Amino acid sequence: MQPSIITALARQCEKQPDAPALTGENDSLTYQDLSYAIDQISALLRSFPAKTLGLALDNSPLWAVLDLAGLASGKIVIPLPFFFSAEQIVHSITDAGIGCILTDQPALYQTILADSGITATYTHIISGHEITEIRLGNLPAKPLPPGTVKVTYTSGTTGHPKGVCLSADALYQVATSLLAATGGKPSDKHVSVLPLSTLLENLAGVYVPLLAGAGCHLFSLATVGLSGSSGLDVQKMLGALIKYRATTTILTPQLLHATVAAIEAGHPKPAQLRFCAIGGASVSERLLLRAEKLGIPVFEGYGLSECASVVSLNTETCRRIGSVGKPLPHTRLKFDPDGEILVAGATLLGYTDCLPVPEFWPTGDIGHLDDEGFLHLTGRKKNIFITSFGRNVSPEWVERELTLHPAIAQAAVFGEARPWNVAVIVPRGNASPAAIDQAIADANLVLPDYAQVKCWLPAKVPFLPQNGQLTANGRLKREAIWAQYQTDIKQLYS
User: Fold this and answer.
1) What is the pLDDT of residues 251-263, one digit of tens each?
2) What is the pLDDT of residues 59-74, one digit of tens each?
3) 384 vs 265, more confident
4) Does 355 share its domain with 394?
5) Is the predicted pLDDT of residue 156 greater than 60, yes or no?
6) CA 193 to CA 454: how far, in whole Å?
7) Which of 94, 152, 187, 373 has the most CB atoms in a 10 Å sphere around its CB?
8) CB distance 29 to 21 below 8 Å
9) Residue 105 in this model has a pLDDT that exceeds 70
10) Could you give the angle at the alpha carbon of 22 between the alpha carbons of 17 and 24, nearest 5°?
């Protein structure tokens, strides 16, 4: 039998049946309990007529059990994030031909489905847990690429999320590479602070610890301080990492920034933490150095859904700040003449449209390998603009420097064919215009003249997935931001 997450986990359950596997607010499972739960629920899922299974639950041990049982039962598992808009959720359901949804928030889905004209029946299942099975009645089955076991939706740069179809082999390859790279061991305690509906946390926050024989602490997002798509109570998050003695966790750059600021202000740091992976978007080298100075063991990585999450990662034994680490063992890289990174190994089977995909996936990211094999990112291929003086500027680079300052929460930089650059700024808290002026001046000190920001204007609202100006993993949707602010930006130049 070809190795997979399920077969490898079965061996781990036999090896250490009494060790803790999953822990939540109200329940915990040993590896023996987990094996039994997967067997029982996969048998239940096999009785469902639908081949495609949507998961719409808050973080919990049950989320992990349902996900693993879905894989074990031969279903195609499709996580549905709560940070998606109703329109994006409906698109995901119809795009993948989802026949059944398991959720702990049936009222929300009842409204969404009724408003979209999708018929459904609702049945409470799984004794002792508030889980509802929603069978969708009037949707046609959708052919997906052969071998698909999981569809993960990525917002990308368009309004409709794109369904990335992944194989069992791709998930297993990335998980085993990450297990080796992070030095996973049975004594580890992973605390999830990102939604399990994101592929990175699903894979690196559940599959990897379980393959290591470690314990996964899966609490509701409110318990670890997250609310909505961008709300954060950093004291709650740090409190959870400290209380449950986390040795590993995964943070986005925004969560790392909040963590560093809180610890610099005197909050205790998680003393047991040995590996804090940073992913989801690019992160400033200066922020990583601030974290290192505080003794926070941060390791930046790089990946994308189309490559089954992680492509490269810094590690405890092989680390270079300013890079995104060395490519994981299962990956092969090439570079287009323009510097675009092309990745082979554990890539997608295709999108839900079943169109063929190349062996080397074009990432859209510009980068290079240094002499020692560390991968460095320069920016997004389509985002790089050229000033009227002929200078190439990667806006992500400038935005990273701007958002390091306490006065600036978000920034979008523009300057195509212009003599200087402008920024649309989302202030942090009640930061005054004078504070933002100073923050921009400070950032300009570390930028060359052609990359500096000369003028700025305040954003009308924050950049969020709900208003179409931010992807689910925190990348700016520049076309949408430009569409809203282009008149004001042009006025600045005039």
Assistant:
1) 988 789 889 999 9
2) 999 999 999 999 999 9
3) 265
4) no
5) no
6) 37
7) 152
8) yes
9) yes
10) 145
Average pLDDT across the chain, whole number: 92
Residue located via tokens 């009037």: 138
**Are 31 and 83 members of one domain?**
yes
CATH of the domain at 276: 3.40.50.12780
84 located within any domain: yes
**Exposure string over 141-155, b if 16+ CB within 10 A, otherwise e:** ebebbeebbbbbbbb
Q: Specify if 380 maps to a domain.
A: no
What is the CATH number for 402? 3.30.300.30
349 and 418 inside one domain: no
Together in a domain, 366 and 460? no
* Same-domain status, 363 and 448: no
The lowest-confidence range among 56-65, 78-87, 95-104, 208-217 is: 78-87
Tokens of 397: 């680079």
Asked if residue 223 belongs to a domain, the reply is yes
Separation of alpha carbons 157 and 483, rounded Å: 14
215-217, strands of its sheet edge to edge = 28-30, 20-23, 215-217, 189-191, 248-251, 275-278, 298-304, 309-313, 326-327
In this structure, are residues 1 and 60 in contact, taking their beta carbons and an 8 Å threshold?
A: no
pLDDT of residue 157: 40
- Provide the domain limits for residue 389: 385-493
List, in sequence order, every residue forming a beta bridge with 167; answer none if it has no partner: 148
Say what the pTM is.
0.84
Whether 327 has a pLDDT exceeding 90, the answer reads yes
Residues 247, 390 within the same domain:
no
- Rank 316-330, 415-429, 467-481 by mean pLDDT and report only the highest: 316-330
Inside any domain, residue 160:
yes
Q: How confident is the model at residue 137 (pLDDT cuts 50, 70, 90)?
A: confident
Q: Total domain count for the chain?
A: 2
Residues 383/395, Cβ–Cβ less than 8 Å: yes
Q: At what angle do helices 31-46 and 5-15 cross, to 10 degrees?
A: 140
DSSP secondary structure string, 396-424? HHHHHHHTTSTTEEEEEEE-TTSSSEEEE
Among 182, 171, 132, residue whose Cα is nearest residue 308? 171
Q: Quick one: 237 and 295 in the same domain?
A: yes
301 pairs with which residues across the strands? 313
Of the residues 351, 375, 399, which one is the last residue of a structural domain? 375
Residue ending a domain, choose from 375, 403, 420: 375
DSSP 446: T
Residue 158 pLDDT: 43
